[in-house]
Specification:
The complex is a heterodimer of chains A (about 1200) and B (about 260). Chain A has about 1200 residues and is α/β, with parallel strands linked by helices. Chain A has 41 helices and 35 strands. In chain A, the strands form six sheets. Chain A has a nine-stranded mixed sheet, sandwiched between helices. In chain A, strands 29-28-30-31-33-32-34-35 form an eight-stranded mixed sheet, with helices on both faces. Chain A has a seven-stranded mixed sheet with strand order 3-2-4-5-7-6-12, with helices on both faces. In chain B, the strands form three sheets. An eight-stranded mixed sheet of chain B has the order 3-4-5-6-7-8-11-12. Chain B has a two-stranded antiparallel sheet with strand order 1-2. Chain B is an alpha/beta fold and about 260 residues long. In chain B, helix 4 packs parallel to helix 5 and helix 5 (about 145-165) runs parallel beside helix 6 (about 180-190). In chain B, strand 6, helix 5 (about 145-165) and strand 7 (about 170-175) form a beta-alpha-beta unit. Chain B contains eight helices and twelve strands. Classes of the chains: A alpha/beta (about 1200), B alpha/beta (about 260). Chains A and B meet through helix 2, helix 15, helix 20 and helix 39 of A and helix 2 of B.
Chain lengths: ~1200, ~260
């Protein structure tokens, strides 16, 4: 049988099997498992059948809990079902897992094992999520490589039917799920050979059906529950044997033989390491290396972890074993040991007691932890474990891969130990997100994997920023199967695809002596050497690298490819590395281009071809001088005046040296300081805005719309200008009240992302010079130094006194200091301006609960975070709990603040005699409805604390601890539509119903932006999204109206780009409203598919077309006899098409399915008409009763 | 009974009324109504090579935007298996139009590259068009390009296209030539079977307040019949040239 060799990643491997043997697929996206669900959705949309010739039913649910519930229901009703998940998502499925297992219902959960959030969230891989499900009764089956994922996926689906136990098939998140490898595909016939038709029939017969009705899910009592629970024991006992039979069956079909426990190593090994997952591949590579020199070592790879068969476990071990080390990729704080360690000790002691162990003496057993959150696990670390096992008193409960200088659990690792095969090509590529480097490398792997006999592996490392991010591709090619499940540290080819990386990264650190270095350089072979920093020159000389350059940017531009240099660099890689003959490589690259982009049209293919054809002529080798002669080196990561924590810890992370940080450097409880983003100067903008002070009308719109707080305005005393740098601009302030002041609009040149939204929104155009406005974009490089000085001077100018400003005017409010700056959000982000506005208004007294999503990532992803402090050291305090609980989390903060304030008030009263009547009355009766009132209360609290310091009563200490809560606090729940409309809706609803003073800001991008564009209930009708590839068939949920229906919730629908005054009003009113407030904020997003410089134009169009009406519902107006519902925008004046067809999320449907596009457009237009009619009616409603009396 | 049949592009038409390229003929229903209402031939709306390229590049650009930057969202928009970009939709429409009516269907093409003109022309012929109208819309912007070079572009284009087709080729041209009769003759010699004297360049407006160039779509008016007929309709049958006078055009109200 000739099975094709394909290059795919772990997720695709699992999905390919799961899809074809399933009928119902209920999912919820969560990194890194989302692609599995997306594959299923895509194939279903392409009408690809399963092995029974029918198309599976794929449904996205509102949460993983919902997916598990839907799956459970589908299984009970007799369909073969599957789902995909990880981490917190898996945890949300646990209650259903108990039920599904308790009901002996076959199914498979494919899990990309990911860290469960503890002190922090992590999207990366370890086994903590899977281990949390041990007691559910699911069988747990581990795959270690991409090929195994495909094979074990089928084993799981076959074994679950045979054993009736549900299976959880897991593989390491990212390390395997996203690793691209060459595997042998499985045909439909292979699948049919393993999925027993009789078992499927038996399964169907057990289904719930009114034609043969049965009852499940009874409630049982103490008299019978225990016995019933024990009744399934024989199924668990039989399962291991069944799984081995399935493995044997699979071997007979595809030729690869697996066992429940697979041993690799010396047959007479004395030291054996036991582990599961991708780390076992690195361990295997190490064992194979060490045994060549006669070391008696081995690795036992655990595949079937539950049910744990002691018999099979012991049977797999050599009888010469003297020492065992278990490696767990999880941490169970407080346990006597990690899961695998505990199971191994149990198995060995039971085996010895029963006389069934292969050895007669109890081996020394130690257990350790490795690889948490995808921490690297290398052969050097495996060797460290083997070396530790040689010691007379080896360390137990050790860690390997980190430096633990606190509790001293870590093993010493020799970083020079390597098992890399010299015949393997090891290539590392540094690219910029969106320049196509990763895609090109994936194609290269495909080409080499499928067009040659070589094995190929690709692994990609991304950045924590959403724009201007660095991507690192690690590619290996070789004649032998690749088990190197770790990053390349000794590359024989290094490519740097962005010249600017050289000034901040030591890209050649990974280069081995004699390697080849390819650089995308605007400087030719003659000039480039002098433009390199010292570190780069040194590396090239000492390591004797071969050095090539190409001006890929120019070649790409000439070919019409814009900034996409990928095919240019890819062609050069093949030309230099010689992995394929040049002409063959070019033909293969072109073939890949056609396959990948052909469907987007001939024009796209042609320009890619043009880029390929032009590449080689522009590739030049550089003659390397003998000496380092550069007069500059890598940029300093953070300025020397940064705080110690930033300099010593965060800077290491920025440099890519985070792995070197020891345990002692990290906060013990996950607490980090705020105001750190200001120290990370990214310099990613090619162009920055330049102010023309003569044209500026000082409206503040640019300041308001800036996503990154890099353009700011201040008014100040002109005397301060005496010390201003030479190029610092200023002009007379255009305020009646501040006529004598100066005004400056200043840009932070090193923090700007170049999105140009400020320029786009600027209303002030020159009457004499076309296209010239009060701000205009200009090249950053020449301006960098001067504007850096200007910015630093600007920051030192004192902030204006808040009490002198009008909080209802955009112009005034935009003079306020933003306490949210320089986040890692996309350039042009539509969410961040709302957050920034809130921090300008209330930041110094705000508590924020942030749902998981884009806002928790740009709000809290290391190394540096954007929430800042004012000169008093006050600023927003922020925490991300989970995804589904954010409204409740914020409510909890409100309960705490209110309770403490209540307590404080009581204590003030109790201590009245010692505090004095004036202070007590002032504190208890403070009017904190404006800035003046708040400032006065702050002064009082300061005086209070001073007085308390001199008191001896116990209550004085209590009151000191809660005194600050006497100043009004603003509690906010931030999140996107994924949280508010879907997974967190239940909690949000409860909070809205609670009547408590929580302000909810929903930044509505109408799609799950952070996880790559899956549909939410906020996605509009007719828009394309993942899981709505044919256009969302149903209308957008009206979350606002659902909240309005309570009658006691403040609700506002806003769009900052269309109505900044209305947005400002809404924020002020929401904070002032003593009850739950909900602001739904239109947020343009990269997932909408257009150039975000037009974000505000689209917001205007959304409002003008009536698609996004602006309104405020304020319950406080009722007692004034007014209609609480105020419609703030005008009736539709723009055809809906003129709004939506500027966005690819709508236009792509007109191409892929024009009929559907037409049909959905008509329905969407009707949606707009109906909604407008209903809102207008609500706004026009006459008020009865009180209104009549008032008149 | 006045004899209304005539010949155009070598095709025998039951009368001299031909519906020119317009969005009306995007709809098969309309095409049938045109035939029912007495039209003798129908020119389909133009296939714009440039539009195809722009749509293609725009889709590619925004499917690409933001990808491969952040591990949780490596892509943002699902990539479909097909987008019906390219001429397929147009060609399918042409085929269906041919099936729907008996009168000749004339394809219309606005190319932007020599390869595009020839390639798409062939496809239109293969799809069953009875003739092809080339909508040449070339605005020279380079000061180095002379008038005769512009005319040569037109001529070369017509010859290339004609050389690759069997069906007759009409050429739609505007009036902005130094010597229209000379250009007309050269196009005739290059293989044009007819010249359609009607072509308007889209003319943007200048917003003097904002100092911006703004798109401005002013649709054609009946007045432009007269302007067009100051040029003449030429019908060539290989060797014979028939020149109709403006007076005759006005009488027949055909152009």
């Amino acid at each position: 049988m000739n099975r094709k060799k394909i290059t795919i990643d772990g997720n695709e491997a699992a999905a390919r099997v799961a899809y074809r043997v399933s009928e119902v697929i209920a999912i919820y996206p969560i990194t890194p498992s989302s692609p599995m669900g997306e594959w299923a959705d895509q194939w279903s949309a392409e009408v690809k059948p399963n092995i029974w010739g029918t198309v599976p039913n794929v449904m996205e649910m509102q949460s993983e809990g919902g997916a598990a519930g839907a799956l459970h229901g589908a299984l009970q009703a007799g369909s073969l079902g599957v789902t995909f998940t990880a981490s917190q998502g898996l945890l949300l499925m646990i209650p259903n897992m108990f039920k599904i297992a308790g009901e002996l219902t076959p199914t498979v959960l494919h899990v990309t094992a990911r860290t469960v959030a503890a002190h922090a969230l992590s999207i990366f891989g370890d086994h903590s999520d899977v281990m949390a499900t041990r007691s559910t009764g699911f069988a747990l089956l581990a795959s270690n490589s991409v090929q195994e994922v495909m094979d074990f996926a089928l084993i799981s689906h076959a074994a679950t039917l045979a054993s009736r136990l549900p299976f959880l098939h897991f593989f390491d998140g990212f390390r395997t799920s996203h690793e691209v490898g060459k595997v042998e595909e499985m045909t439909d016939d292979d699948l049919r050979a393993l999925i027993d038709a009789n078992l499927v029939e038996a399964y169907r017969k057990r289904a719930l059906s009114p034609d043969h009705p049965m009852l499940r899910g009874t409630a049982q009592n103490p008299d019978v529950y225990f016995q019933a629970r024990e009744s399934a024991n024989s199924f668990y006992a039989a399962c291991p044997g069944i799984v081995q039979n399935v493995m044997d069956k699979l071997a007979s079909v595809i030729g690869r033989q697996y066992h429940l426990f697979d041993y690799v190593g010396a047959p007479d090994a004395e030291r054996v390491v036991i582990m599961m997952g991708s780390g076992a591949e690195a361990a295997q590579e190490t064992v194979e290396y060490l045994t060549q020199s006669g070391e008696k070592v081995g690795v036992l790879k655990v595949h079937l972890y539950r049910p744990f068969s002691i018999e099979h476990f012991l049977g797999a071990l050599p009888k010469t074993v003297k020492s065992l080390a278990t490696l767990d990729r999880t941490k169970e704080s407080g346990a006597a040991g990690e899961p695998l360690y505990v199971d191994v000790i149990t198995a060995v002691s039971e085996g010895l007691n029963a006389g069934t162990a292969p050895f007669t003496a109890f081996p020394r057993i130690i257990g350790g932890r490795y690889g948490l959150s995808s921490k690297e696990f290398t052969p050097a670390m495996v060797k460290a474990v083997f070396d530790e096992m040689k010691k007379p008193a080896p360390l137990n409960h050790f860690t390997v891969g980190i430096v633990d200088d606190v509790t001293h659990t870590s093993l010493e690792v020799d970083p020079t130990f390597s098992t890399e095969d010299p015949k393997t090509v090891r290539a590392v590529f540094y690219g910029l997100g969106s320049d196509g480097t990763v895609g090109a490398n994936k194609n290269s792997i495909k080409i080499i994997g499928e067009d040659t006999d070589n094995y190929a592996q690709g692994y990609f490392v991304y950045d924590s920023k959403k724009s201007g991010s660095v991507t690192t591709s690690h590619l290996r090619f070789g004649p032998k199967p690749i088990h190197s499940t770790y990053l390349i540290s000794q590359a024989n080819f290094v490519a740097c695809h962005q010249f600017s990386f050289l000034e901040r990264l030591d890209v050649l650190k990974v280069a081995e002596p004699g390697a080849t270095f390819l650089l995308n350089s605007p400087y030719g072979a003659e000039e480039v050497w002098n433009m390199l920093p010292r570190t780069t020159q040194r590396q090239i000389i000492t390591k004797k690298l071969r050095f090539y350059v190409i001006d890929a940017v120019q070649v790409a531009k000439n070919a019409g490819m814009g900034g996409r240099i990928n095919t240019v660099m890819q062609t050069c890689f093949f030309a230099i590395s010689g992995v394929l003959p040049r002409d063959e490589a070019i033909a293969a690259i072109k073939h890949a281009i056609e396959k990948t982009y052909g469907r987007r049209g001939e024009a796209v293919v042609k320009k890619n071809f043009a880029a390929v054809d032009a590449s080689i002529d522009h590739l030049h080798e550089v003659k390397v001088p003998a000496e380092v002669n550069s007069n500059f080196d890598l940029r300093q990561t953070v300025p020397s005046q940064a705080p110690a924590f930033v300099r010593d810890v965060l800077a290491r992370i920025i440099e890519g040296e985070g792995d070197s940080l020891p345990v002692s450097a990290m906060p013990i409880d996950g607490t980090f300081p705020t105001a750190t983003a200001q120290w990370e100067k990214r310099n990613i903008a090619l162009d920055i805005p330049v102010w023309d002070e003569n044209l500026c009308i000082q409206c503040g719109k640019c300041v308001m719309v800036c996503p990154h707080a890099v353009i700011r305005a201040k008014i100040y005393d002109p005397a301060l200008l005496d010390k201003a740098p030479a190029t610092f601009k200023s002009t007379a302030a255009r305020w009646k009240e501040f006529k004598e002041f100066k005004y400056t609009l200043q840009v932070a040149p090193e923090d700007c992302t170049g999105c140009a939204l400020c320029v786009e929104i600027c209303p002030s155009k020159s009457k004499s010079e076309a296209k010239h406005k009060a701000i205009n974009m200009a090249s950053q490089m020449p301006l960098r130094e001067a504007e850096r000085d200007n910015w630093n001077f600007f920051l030192d100018i004192p902030e204006v006194d808040r009490r002198t400003l009008s909080m209802g005017q955009v112009k005034d409010v935009q003079l306020l200091q933003p306490l949210f700056e320089f986040s890692g959000a996309c350039a042009g982000c539509g969410e961040t301006p709302y957050i920034k506005l809130m921090t300008q208004l209330f930041g110094d007294r705000a508590l924020i609960g942030n749902a998981t999503g884009c806002s928790s990532i740009y709000g809290g992803n290391l190394p540096t975070t954007p929430y800042a402090v004012n000169h008093e050291g006050r600023g927003p305090t922020w925490a991300n709990s989970l995804f589904e609980d954010n409204a409740e989390f914020a409510l909890g903060m409100r309960l705490a603040v209110d309770q403490q304030a209540q307590f404080a008030r009581e204590l003030v009263k109790r201590l009245a005699a010692s505090l004095g009547d004036e202070l007590v009355q002032g504190l208890l009766n403070a009017d904190q409805s404006n800035e003046t009132g708040i400032r006065e209360q702050r002064e009082r609290v300061k005086a209070l604390k001073a007085k308390l310091a001199g008191l001896t009563q116990l209550e004085a200490r209590d009151l000191t601890n809660v005194a600050e809560t006497l100043v009004k606090k603003s509690v906010w729940a931030f999140g996107g539509d994924g949280w508010a409309y879907d997974i967190g809706y239940g909690g949000l609803d409860h909070v809205l119903a609670s009547g408590r003073n929580v302000n909810v800001l929903v930044m509505d991008t109408e799609v799950y932006s952070n996880t790559g564009g899956q549909m939410s209930k906020s996605t509009p009708r007719g828009a394309v999204a993942k899981f709505a590839a044919g256009g969302k068939p149903r209308a957008k949920k009206d979350l606002g109206m659902m909240a309005v229906s309570y009658g006691s919730v403040y609700v506002a629908q806003v769009a900052l780009g269309a109505g900044d005054m209305q947005t400002l009003k809404a924020f002020n009113e929401a904070d002032a409203f003593d009850g739950p407030s909900l602001i739904i904020a239109y947020s343009h997003c990269i997932a909408h598919g257009y150039d975000l410089v037009h974000g505000c134009d689209q917001q205007k169009a959304a409002v003008q077309s009536g698609y996004w009406p602006l309104y405020r519902y304020n319950p406080d107006l009722v007692k004034l006899g007014k209609n609480p519902f105020q419609l703030d925008s005008r009736p539709p004046a723009l055809p809906l098409e003129k709004y939506i067809y500027n966005e690819t999320r709508y236009t792509m449907l007109t191409h892929s399915d024009p009929e559907a596009a037409k049909r959905l457009l008509l329905l969407a237009e009707e949606d707009v008409r109906t909604r407008w009619r209903d809102y207008q009616n609500l706004a026009a409603m006459p008020m009865n009763g009180a209104a009549k009396e008032a008149k | 009974m006045i004899e209304l049949t005539t010949k155009y592009l070598g095709l025998t038409l039951k009368n001299p009324l031909v519906v020119s390229a317009s969005p009306l003929s995007e709809d098969i229903g309309n095409i049938r109504r045109m035939e029912d209402s007495g039209a003798a031939a129908i020119v389909l709306p133009s296939l714009f090579e440039e539009q195809i390229h722009v749509e293609s590049n725009t889709l590619d650009r925004f499917l690409w935007q933001g990808t491969e930057s952040f591990a949780e969202s490596l892509t943002y928009i699902p990539d479909m298996t097909g987008y019906n970009l390219g001429p397929d939709g147009y060609l399918e429409h042409l085929r269906r139009a041919k099936q729907a009516v008996k009168v000749p269907i004339i394809g219309s093409l606005n190319g932007s590259s020599m390869g595009g003109w020839v390639g798409y022309a062939k496809k239109i012929e293969e799809a069953g068009a009875d003739a092809l109208e080339l909508n040449i819309y070339f605005i020279p912007t380079d000061a180095e390009t002379s008038g005769s070079q512009v005319e040569q572009v037109y001529v070369d284009l017509v010859s290339q296209v004609k050389a690759s087709l069997h069906i007759p080729v009409a050429v739609k041209i505007g009036a902005y030539f130094s010597s229209l009769p000379n250009t007309a003759r050269r196009l005739d010699q290059a293989g044009a079977a007819a010249l359609v004297l009607f072509n308007r360049f889209y003319q943007p407006d200048f917003d003097m307040e904002n100092l911006e160039v703004v798109p401005n779509l002013i649709l054609s008016t009946p007045h432009e019949f007269c302007c067009a007929s100051t040029g003449w309709r030429f019908s060539t049958e290989k060797s014979r040239q028939t020149w109709r006078s403006p007076a005759e055009c006005t009488r027949l109200r055909t152009c």
